[in-house]
Structure of Putative hydrolase:
Amino acid sequence: MMTHDSLPPASIVTVNGTSIATRTLEPPTASAGDIVLCHGTPWSSQVWTSVATDLSRDYRVFLWDMPGYGESEKSAAVTTDLAAQAVRLGALIELWGLQRPHVVAHDIGGAVALRAHLLNGVEYADVFLWDVVTLDPWGSPFFRLVAENAHVFEQLPAHLHAALVKEYIAAAAFRPLSDEDVEALASQWLGPIGQAAFYRQITALSAADTRPVANRLEATRSPVRIGWGRDDPWIPLRQAYELQSRFPDHPEVVVLDDVGHLTPVEHPSAVTAAVRAWLARQPAPPRRRRVGHGRSRRPSPPSAAQGGRGTAQ
């Protein structure tokens, strides 16, 4: 099991009045480039713990918890729709002083990264998308049920809410996650603040924010590669090939066998290997200008990791 304890303490920065937990991992010698990792829902940057740790042997790696998730601000006043998160991503890249970083994104993190690029003009050296939310239809029946009845779910007794969240998280994987991993991934959503935040972030997510992205995919200016779990129970593999057909140059699709939706946790070594192979083929991006830092505090909850095989198609 991987945890946030494997990562450096979070640095809390403020973007447009909202507190965001960020982390930077530095390589022991000169950096081969800058990588920004974007998480999805209902996750946090902890899903990237193993991948980030490995990549940081050679690259500077930047992680963030989207507001409403992880250690970032979770108050009811925080907007958690995809449009707002895309603006924050662009602001963080500017704050970190990065010029055309490599971007690796999972789930709705892919929609956030693409929206920042296609609608907000944020430039990347390249982007690797894993099991991303972009094309209609998206959202499981449970997801839609919660979105339509959030006020009811928010009132669930704490033990029923905890059971629901853990079952939802466990269902994302093809092979069973360990109890420790499920506990770690669910921890951010437990307690009164976490419970309310869990249902708020689901309610805030809408295909209305991804359709403008899907309609502009052919205008993507950065090289793209797509990765997917062959047995993704949330977003079927066929969406990877639909995405492939919409991007310029029909990018390669890397498929991980015996892996579900939670690719960075279920098979971090395969994800890392695919990212490293991809970056080895890309020209080096411009070097950074400066790195912004915020107030630091110690991290709290944990993360996860497990197995599978991969093929490129």
Remarks:
- The CA atoms of residues 140 and 302 lie 25 Å apart.
- Confidence is low (pLDDT under 50) at residues 290-313.
- The first strand starts at residue 10 and ends at 15.
- DSSP finds twelve helices and ten strands in the chain.
